[in-house]
Every structure is written in C-alpha cells, then in structure tokens.
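Tokens for chain A. Residues wanted.
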C-alpha cells in the first residue's frame, strides 16, 4: 500500500486536488482509498433514521451495511485527536494508494498544498522548509512561495502531472508498518 498525505490550510485546494487525482489513479487500474481529517463535529446519519436513533440511545458503535456500502460510526468516550496510523489500519489492505487529507503533522510522506494569501490576508506558515516528510509542494504560484523549496514544486492545477509524479516516485510512498504498544498497523 502507498500512502500520500496532502496538507495545507483550509481553502488551499486539498479536497479538489484529491478529487481530481482519484479518477486519474483509477484509470491506471489502481484501487484508491481516502482518509480525511475533519476538524469539526460531523455526522453521517440523519435525525430520525434508525442508525441515528441507535447512537442517540447510547450505542458505542453502529455499523451500517447494504449490498453496496458499509459505514462504521464509532463514538469516542472522550474527544481526542485521531491517530492516522490507527485509521490506516482499519482500511482494506487491498488498496493500492491511500490519499490522506489533513493530518499535517503526521509522520507520512506528503504533498504540501500552498496558495498565496489573498490581498489583506495574513501570511500562512509553511511546512516544507522544516518538515522532512514533505516530499513536494503543489502550488499555483511557484514564484510566490515564502521560502524557496528544496523539494519538487508541482503545478496544483495540473493533476495529471501530479498523478504521474506520484506514480514515478511510488516507492517513496510505501507505507511502513507502524508499531505501538497496543496495535500494529499496516
């Protein structure tokens, strides 16, 4: 399994880029999964539906399954930052690529998405000068990067070229087994 992170500020284009990369990788016959970090409370069920009612009644987990999809809703006892390795361990091991959106501090090879701030907007800190896991920077204005990048600079608006770059550097994105005292992730 290959794992590529995509990190950047909200509104930088992470979701749009991933949305455009998925079909390009699928056209190569690859199975693609996504792990998305949500900073805010979110919900997949709707009030009044059976799964919502089960969770409201206090179920720790509710697994929804049909002949075409499965969703597992898990309630944390206490709010905490999810561990990306634990989440990766939950995925189907048959995935060829996992695209991870968010988790900017995770020790995963990643593409930093950077856009110049709009006029009047404060400058945004960047990861690439000091984060050894940033494999490349994707931007629409390479001449405006706040610091010259030692990593490859890719065109944010050319997802086919970015997909080609990922495939050409696939070995760099091999996911190594992560071991902690409680679980092993692959």
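Reply:
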């Amino acid at each position: 399994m290959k794992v590529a992170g995509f990190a950047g500020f909200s509104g930088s284009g992470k979701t749009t880029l991933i949305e455009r990369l998925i079909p390009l990788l699928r056209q190569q016959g690859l199975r693609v999964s996504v792990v998305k970090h949500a900073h805010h409370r979110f919900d997949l069920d709707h009030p009044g539906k059976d799964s919502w009612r089960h969770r409201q009644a206090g179920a720790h987990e509710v697994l929804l399954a049909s002949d075409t999809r499965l969703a597992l809703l898990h309630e944390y006892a206490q709010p905490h930052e999810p561990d990306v390795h634990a989440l990766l361990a939950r995925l189907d091991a048959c995935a060829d690529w996992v695209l991870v959106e968010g988790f900017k501090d995770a020790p995963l090879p990643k593409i930093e998405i950077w856009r110049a701030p709009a006029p009047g907007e404060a400058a945004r800190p960047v990861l690439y000068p000091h984060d050894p896991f940033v494999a490349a920077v994707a931007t629409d204005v390479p001449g405006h990067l706040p610091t010259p990048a030692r990593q490859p600079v890719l065109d944010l608006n050319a997802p086919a070229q970015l997909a080609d770059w990922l495939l050409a550097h696939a070995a760099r994105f091999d996911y190594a087994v992560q071991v902690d005292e409680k679980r092993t992730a692959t």
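The helical segments are 14-26, 50-56, 84-90, 159-168. The first strand starts at residue 2 and ends at 7.
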